[in-house]
Design a protein that fits this description.
Layout lengths: L2 H27 L6 E6 L13 E6 L7 E7 L3 E8 L10 E13 L5 E9 L6 E2 L2 E9 L9 H8 L3 E4 L8 H4 L10 H13 L7 H4 L7 H12 L3 H18 L4 H7 L5 H12 L6 E3 L2
Parallel strand pairs: 3-10, 6-9
Antiparallel strand pairs: 1-2, 3-4, 4-8, 5-6, 5-7, 5-8
Length: 290
């Protein structure tokens, strides 16, 4: 067999391999999330390189358009998301996170390893990427909370095959917090003070001195009582109430700016930064259901 015949056969094999590879990549591109975007770079015009098949660069796209679609309920020191998990870049956030689903959840941890299961407990400040899912329940918990989980959350954790997601800069939270008792009934004086806080939120800054009179106590005694009864520092509690008020405004039909101002945030950008820092999600990625 001559040299020309050998080169012809080799070129045919290369072309067939290239076609098979292109076909495989196109199958990926037509998958559920349209996850493959294909760019080709023909290196045949480079005089310093031998001719070879096209180089394929495959980049993951499409998932960045997936929004978080569902319902959000914010309590005193927790938030509960019920719905789909949308796109998010690799991030960290202040709140601890418990993610549940009837199917398999997947998260990429700080070390690049994938963790999967139907119950993921993500430590505060742990760098991670939670991959999109059709259906999930997600609890976000204030990491300074002194009291343990509610009965409902504790029961879910106990019934699940738990995977804990941590990392280099993570704050260890879950092992200790799940052993704590739930909050008992709150003192009536603190309940009155909380109602006062709700009234003062639209004004802007809410100071301890502004609400302690509602509890018929001095500032010093009220600070101690509030922390003991609620289990949170006063200003952290106020921040959670601001978030709750702002989302309630959005559900009532207010614009982002109107909802932010009504809850006492300086502006819509301040509200958006708080959401990102607390939950790791951009406000623009959330689609709330009434």
């Amino acid at each position: 067999m001559g040299a020309d015949s050998v080169r012809a056969i080799a070129n045919s094999i290369q072309e067939m391999s290239s076609l098979r590879l292109m076909s495989a990549v196109r199958q990926i591109a037509s998958s559920r999330f349209h996850a493959a975007s294909i760019q080709t770079a023909d290196v045949s015009k480079r005089p310093d390189l031998p001719r070879r098949p096209e180089i394929l660069r495959v980049s993951v796209t499409g998932m960045e358009n997936l929004r978080w679609h569902g319902q959000l309920r914010i309590d005193w020191e927790t938030a509960l998301w019920s719905g789909s998990v949308g796109h998010a870049a690799t991030h960290r956030h202040f709140a601890a996170q418990a993610v549940f689903s009837s199917g398999q959840l997947r998260v990429i941890g700080d070390d690049g390893e994938e963790v999967s299961g139907n119950c993921l407990l993500i430590e505060p400040n742990a760098r991670h990427l939670l991959l999109p899912a059709d259906d999930a329940l997600i609890w976000y918990i204030e990491p300074t909370a002194a009291f343990g989980p509610s009965d409902a959350l504790r029961a879910r954790i106990d019934a699940s095959d738990v995977r804990i997601v941590s990392g280099r800069d993570a704050r260890l939270f879950w092992a200790d917090w799940t052993e704590r008792r739930a909050r008992p009934t709150v003192d009536a004086r603190v309940s009155r003070a909380i109602r006062k806080i709700e009234c003062l939120l639209p004004v802007g800054a809410v100071r301890l001195a502004d609400v302690c009179a509602a509890g018929d106590l001095s500032t010093g005694r009220f600070r101690h009582l509030f922390a003991a009864e609620i289990g949170l520092p006063f200003q952290r509690f106020v921040l959670w109430r601001r978030l709750a008020a702002a989302f309630e405004g959005l559900l009532a039909g207010a614009t982002v700016t109107e909802a932010a101002h009504a809850a006492g945030f300086a502006d819509a950008a301040h509200f958006a930064r708080t959401i990102k820092a607390m939950f790791g999600i951009r406000a623009s990625d959330i689609l709330l259901e009434r």
